[in-house]
TrEMBL record:
Biological pathway: Steroid metabolism; ergosterol biosynthesis
Biological-process GO terms, alphabetical: ergosterol biosynthetic process
Principal localisation: endoplasmic reticulum
Secretion signal span: 1-18
Pfam families: ERG2_Sigma1R
Listed name of the protein: C-8 sterol isomerase
Highest taxon above the source species: Eukaryota
Entry similarity comment: Belongs to the ERG2 family.
Keyword hit for Methyltransferase: no
Compartments (UniProt record): Endoplasmic reticulum membrane
EC identifiers of the protein: 5.-.-.-
């Protein structure tokens, strides 16, 4: 009898997740095309000045996306442009500023002026990496040749795919991920526990992510 209950539980769990997966689109606020246009506008207006581009992007988003319930889909954005934390993941290291985080989307500025290289991770979300400064190189196993992404271009990594990537010299990007965000977090935090032991960074990353997700949940943005 016991196994029957376990089986029923498993089937229910799988159907619930399959169903949620088919309707996750209704919680999306951003779209990859507009963000790509915005990243291109930032590059054209402030080419090579990362700080000015970040500020340009955040003011545009603040003006474009309603932050109060009277105006359709709402979203909470993090205005603290000096709130950067290190991120070590998949062997690569950089710093990020979390502009927005929810259960189904995140939007961050990620990069380093030094260059880095690693594994993209195997994720449950689609990833759009909009290059602002520098270059990102990428390589799929078997491709034998590299992909090159320059300022104004976007590197789309569909969910479930992994690549090797390199920011050969410095590179900063506006990274947008949509899909299921919480399962991506262990990848972002594993290196802290297994390698860097940088617990202050771990604490601030967890604190900022939780705070931003919670702010969004409170206004019904899942
Ligand atoms: C934001 O950027 C987009 C893309 O460049 C542009 O079409 C739009 O007019 C901008 N909005 C504001 C409020 O600046
Ligand atoms: C940014 O700097 C690089 C290297 O100095 C240069 O090749 C490129 O043209 C610059 N881009 C812009 C948009 O100013």
């Amino acid at each position: 009898m016991k196994w029957l209950w376990r089986f029923a539980f498993l089937v229910t769990l799988i159907s619930t997740f399959s169903y949620l997966d088919t309707i996750k689109d209704r919680w999306y606020v951003f779209d990859p095309e507009s963000l790509h246009e915005l990243a291109q506008a930032a590059v054209n207006t402030h080419g090579n000045d990362t700080r000015a581009m970040v500020s340009f992007i955040v003011s545009n988003l603040t003006a474009t996306y309603p932050q109060d319930a009277s105006a359709g889909k709402v979203v909470s954005l993090n205005p603290r442009q000096d709130e950067w934390v290190f991120n070590n993941a998949g062997g690569a290291m950089g710093a990020m500023y979390i502009i927005h985080a929810s259960i189904t989307e995140y939007l961050i500025i990620f990069g380093t002026p030094l260059g880095t290289e690693g594994h993209t991770g195997l994720h449950t979300a689609d990833d759009y990496f909009n290059i602002l400064t520098g270059e990102q190189w990428a390589f799929s196993a078997g491709a034998l040749e590299m992909e090159v992404y320059k300022p104004g271009s976007v590197h789309h990594l569909p969910r479930g795919n992994a690549k090797q990537y390199k920011m050969h010299k410095g590179c900063f990007a506006l990274e947008y991920a949509r899909g299921w965000i919480p399962p991506m977090m262990p990848f972002g935090l594993a290196d802290v526990l297994s390698s860097t032991l940088d617990f202050p960074t771990f604490y601030h990353t967890a604190r900022i992510t939780a705070r931003e997700m919670f702010k969004n949940l409170l206004i019904g943005k899942i």
